[in-house]
Amino acid sequence: MKFDRRSPTARRDRSGELRKLQHRFTLRWVAGTTIGFLLVGGGWISQHVALATAARATTGSPAVTAAIADLGHAANVSSVVAVTVLVILAAFMFRPLDRTLRREGVWMEQVEREQRLDTLREKFGAELHEALEMAVDEDAIARVVARVFATAVPTNPAELLLADSSEAHLALGVAHPLAGSPGCGVGAPFECPAVRRATAQSFPTSAAINACPHLADRPGAPRSALCVPVAFMGRALGVLHLTGPDGEPAGREEIHRMDVLAYQVGAALGTFRAFSRAQLQASTDSLTGLLNRRSAEDQLLRRLAGGEQFAIVMADLDHFKLLNDTYGHQVGDRALRLFAETVRRSLRTEDIFARWGGEEFVIALPSSDRVAASATLDRTRLLLVEACARAETPSVTASFGVSDTTMSTDLDELLRLADEALLSAKSHGRDRIEHAGPPIAKKIGDDLEAAIRQS
Prior knowledge:
single chain; alpha+beta; 5-stranded antiparallel beta sheet; 5-stranded mixed beta sheet; 12 helices; 15% strand; rod-shaped
């Protein structure tokens, strides 16, 4: 019967059979040996009793006495021989049990050792999984990898090389916090043999003919190395690389831990990047890469709720329909991207810039009012002229309408005021900046207009 050594049920069954076998053989051996010794002892005693009786019955003849003595000696010799044969037979009978017990003892020790290793492996995997689950970004994942390096391979230089967003270039992502980085010079994922073969690669020495080229060409003394690919759903995300003394490759447990680390880090990184990409696609405009309307509204509402002061700009490309009709939609798309890139270069990192829809854009300038916003927009208009000249595209201009939070703290109202100012800029010749009037002035104007109509 074959047993699965990793099955707890199989181990219990095998242990029970071992105990039964030991008990059965012990009983038989003890019983047989006892009976044998009893028979030998009984025969020896009965022979000596018979000889003593015969000696007393004789008349003391020297010949008879000598014969009786010889018989006693022969009885002793035969008893010794019988005891020796009995011991040999007992030992021979016990040998199968002894061999079985030794073999099973070695097997049980091996199973217990593997069970302890399995327990440690499961604990390591569970702790690593929990740590990576709590990581909220790539920096947090990197800190987990650094902690694993420090505990799992405390004396080996180790590093995690990560691919960039194009997955075409590798760069150092994490270095061993204590032993440092081994300094692998591989530049692209598929230049690494471990990535190409999609499995861990162990190199006992960098002096070998079949050593990794990036290991063999490295300056310094020969060394051993282990490289483990980091992947997610078939996509190469990087490689784990560690080195050690020459001729001393990584052991089984080190390889196992690095395999587990590479697998779980790949899953965590891949999931995080996929989620980030999905979030980016959901919050940005695919043509220009700017925030889309929903994302911009969410950010503006949060800033208004926090009492932040800022200027709101509505921008619109002039004669955009004519540009599309004359040159085609591809030129129109290029004009939108050119405008977006030009404005983005003129803004600060804290400014909000979004494509509102079609050729309309919204800009929010924190800590600015309408006057400060106008200065920024004037610079943008000049940059746009220069950009069109460099790009050798049809001239593109834009009109701007500006409001700020001194006029209202309601987003819809601010956008309406900026849009009215934009319409005013369009009606006054385009390629210009118009400020929204104060709401109270507009109300007075409306009231005067209504009064004139009534009169």
